Input
Amino acid sequence: MSMNMRTVQVLEAVNADSQFRHAARRWTIELMIGVGEDRYIFDVLDGHVRRFELTEDLFQSSSARLVGTDEDWRNLLEAVPVPFYQDFIGAWFNHGFEISGDLRSVFAHYWALLRLLQVMRNINAQAKEQ
Output
């Protein structure tokens, strides 16, 4: 079973998150987030997330990609992740997670990606409590 990425909650939460907004200011990117067989587009324009949604479009363009297995994402989204799943770089270097595309943009705004990851962790933890 594929992970539920809770796209609506994440979209609302990152746009309301002052730390994300600050870190993502001046950032424009179409980020493809691959979760197992599923692909999501995370579209940011000048720091505002315009959409985060599942895409079936095989030709969906993206500036950069964050891609991992369902297991990778489950580990990344744990409230207290196991070693090398604390962030995307650890997963990339040690677990076969993929970060590709416009790496200059990804790393220039890496703090925004870390805020996105934390927001996703918080939402995941809340969902587990229910």
